Amino acid sequence: MVRISDFQIKDVVSISDGRRLGNITDIDINLDNGKIESIVVGGNGKLLSFFSKEEELVIPWNNIVKIGEDVILVRFKDQKFMGQQQLQEPKN
Fold this sequence. Notes:
The chain has helices at residues 4-8, 79-88; strands at residues 11-14, 20-29, 36-42, 57-60, 64-67, 71-74. The chain is α+β, with helices and mostly antiparallel strands. It has a single domain (4-88), classed as SH3 type barrels (Roll). Residues 45-49 and 81-91 have low confidence and may be disordered.
């Protein structure tokens, strides 16, 4: 059995750009079947994102690629971040 506290200490990392998204702050469970639907990740590594709800990311469970000892790899592409990254790249 795995506890939520075991997940909360792992860094969540996007495989699309290698960016650290934060840590798991909550898990959404379907009460009808008992399966995990999604994970909620608090931005900037804040464990208590009490006052920063806009920084929370909800990642569907099927977007989790691998759960390792220290890291959870997820498929996540933030369009806002990708747009900022494209603006910062020098044009040739």
